[in-house]
Write a structure and sequence with these properties.
Blueprint (H helix, E strand, L loop, with lengths): L4 H11 L4 E7 L2 E6 H17 L7 E5 L4 H13 L2 E5 L5 H11 L3 E4 L1 H7 L8 E3 L23 E6 L9 E5 H16 L2 H7 L3 E4 L6 H9 L1 H4 L2 E4 L5 H10 L4 E4 L1 H17 L3 H10 L5 H7 L1 H7 L5 E4 L6 H9 L3 E8 L4 E5 L12 E2 L3 E5 L4 E6 L5 E4 L2 E3 L8 E9 L5 E6 L4 E2 L5 E2 L1 H9 L4 E11 L2 E10 L5 H9 L10 E4 L15 H11 L18 H10 L20 H15 L5 H4 L5 H8 L20 H21 L2 E3 L12 E4 L6 H8 L2 H4 L2 E6 H8 L7 H17 L2 E4 L5 H13 L3 E4 L17 H9 L3 E7 L1 H6 L11 E4 L11 H13 L2
Parallel strand pairs: 1-10, 3-4, 3-5, 5-6, 9-10, 9-11, 11-12, 12-13, 25-26, 27-33, 28-31, 28-32, 29-30, 29-31
Antiparallel strand pairs: 1-2, 7-8, 8-18, 13-14, 14-15, 16-17, 17-20, 18-19, 20-21, 22-23, 24-25, 32-33
Helix pairs in contact: 1-2, 1-3, 2-3, 10-11, 19-20, 26-27, 28-29, 29-31
Amino acid sequence: MPDSIAEFFVANFEKHRHERAFGQRRGYCAEAFTYGEILGMARGVAHTLVHRGISKGDRVLIWGPNSAEWVSVFFGCALRGVIAVPIDDGAALDFTERVLQQVSAKLLLASRSHGEDCKASSLSGALLALEEISRPDHPSLQAPDTAVSREDVLEIVFTSGTTAEPRGVVITHGNVLANIAPLEKEMQGYLRYERLVHPLRFLNLLPLSHVFGQFLGMYLPPLLGATVIFQDEMKPSEILGTIRRERVSVLVSVPRVLQSLKQKIERDLEDKRQTAVFRRRYQSAEKQHFLRRWWTFRNVRRQFGWKFWAMISGGAALDRETEQFWHRLGYAVIQGYGLTETTSLISVNHPFRVGQGSIGKVLPGREVKLADDGEILVRGGGVASAYWDKSGAHDVADEQGWYCTGDIGALDDAGNLYFKGRKKEVIVTPGGMKVYPDDLEAALRRQPEVKDCVVVPLARDGNAEPCAVVILRGDVDLRNVITRANESLADYQRMRQWLRWPEEDFPRTNTQKPRRNLIAEAVRQELGLRNDKDSQGPLSVGTSPLADLIGRIARRQVANLDEAATLVSDLGLSSLDRVELLSALEDRYQVDLSETRFNTVKTVGDLERVLRGETAPTAGYHYPGWVLRWPVTWLRFLAHYLLMRPAIVLLGWPRILGREHLRGVTGPLLVICNHLGDVDPGFVLTALPARFRHHLSIATGGEALEALRMPASNRPFILRIFDRAKWALGVSLLNLFPLPREAGFRKSFAYAGEAVDRGYSVLVFPEGRHSTDGTMNPFRTGIGLLAQNLNIPVLPIRIDGLFEAKQSGRIFAAPYEISVRIGKPMRFDQNRDAAEIAATLQQAVAAL
């Protein structure tokens, strides 16, 4: 076993240096990093620390989303013996400032988005952008020689919220190694089977700022030479798409995501009117072998891809119903239990011997016992060395080495550990009976009308009674729901107080846990109760989650939302703000929203109805992936030279100017051009060099293209066949994809990103419609958003002479009467405003 995480890192990353380690998306495009590249980047970080005078024992803050650069910085600190201080990506600026001051950090490595916030704060002097960590120019670069041992501090993880004084958990190299060792030993017996499915791919949705996310994102995958995929979006359809596209083997997430995926599957079945059939199969599959279940639910499994087989849940307890659902479909559901103070794992379920409902068996190397009141006590090498706060460092464990977790648990005869709830959340009734909120919430979730729920205590005569706070699906009677849930509970457990939560979701932490203190305070206010300990009166719950989201996007405080308030006039949301709002709502509420339906939203009331699913869905657009693969690519090559090229010669062979600007230019381009007629793509293809011409995806009007694919039912049968043939020829021989003019373009942009990942350039006509007078129409702001997120060179092209030929009524033009001018490729900073980019591009095309 290595003596430090630095040694562990070098040994395992060197062993798999040529294999893909991490995948992530930057804007609409994908990036991949090998283990060797991460090793080189980490060594580069270590040298940067040396040059900045940062030595062993100094502290460095890391503040940003999951990324390969984040991993490189963390391991670069480990190589140098510098203490990393991870900050949650969603943490407030004020909290980050307080942590930096408390640990006397000498450097803050933050994402560019956080960097903009830091410029006007005390953090600006010690700031370095994470995105500036690049692949090494010298692969043989070695890290500076620093002696690091198991007793040295690796990181300080701060766990308190923004309203409390920051408190960090001091974790040593030895703490982490003590948790890696038993897992590595257990995996050795399965490595021969891993070769059959190599490489394993993990989709890690847990933040790297938390120790469980670090274990599944940085420590365990290198032992297997596995690939870790990072993704910011928590939207269920995006998660499904990533799992299928990346051929993911294992999903690592919090219970909330598994619940949202379950709800999506159920919604899709309802839309297809297959719920009754599914339920019959679900009941009959209870005793089936898991291979038989794979076949029974093949339609569901096809959505995930056939390589996907397991889900790892951490950060909170997974409810029994969700665990059973995925297990019944043939997936392994693995739960782990641990805390930051125990360096993550205390127990974990075995992937092939899962004890349903339990949080696994205790890992070797640590002891677990239950106190008289059921509290879980832990002792072992994984228990953190100390707490760090402004009063100084002090011990985590007691004199005998036992750490009191604050969690209530149970152990069965087989040694399986069960989580019963937080000790401080246990409700002691006036009758002296202990009620665990998890048991009551499980009973509520079994009711089909319940979307989500939280049970909080209400003070009664020095004790408390449980109160159910419920989010319902649709307009149903909550009393009947509570009555049915109570029937499965003992009399002392039954809920006699309840409240319907007025928002579409609960306030949540960045790990998607409900903020029970805010929910309980809101309940006390609603029911007219008073917190006796608070002499200032009830705490303010703050704005609603919906108001908070709209205010963040509108960049101003939105205290109260009137249903009649319009998104454009009253709240000042631009078209790009609406796109950002759509994405934020999907992530916040863990739902899929139709973009075309979202375009009909005019007021806050409309928005709330869409979130409740009260509007009917509309048809989407189709993006066939087969057009980017052979044999279609070969057919397209032949069609160009046998059909299109001769047609362009007849229509008017163009004069091509500016090709010299493309000398030495390789890789995908975003090609933009003025729009004069339907034949514009033919002239652009003719003007481009072969290396771009034969790898070009062309955006066209989404509404018109979809009308060809799905013609109106009242059209004659022969014409419907003709329309579908035109659609098939267009997407295959011209490589067309839909770009809607009004709404739905976010998915089109994502498809453009996939095309770029495959090496294709993308042609877009930013005006969105033909010119009617020969002058350019204003460029739509969406082209700026696309250029910003594709992060590839933009090539401006201008066609002249075609409009004049059309106006004269001629079908054919003289050779060189039409000209195609190619400009110089342009690049834009990702932080630049999308509207500004669009205006700059229009000026560039106009100037050709």
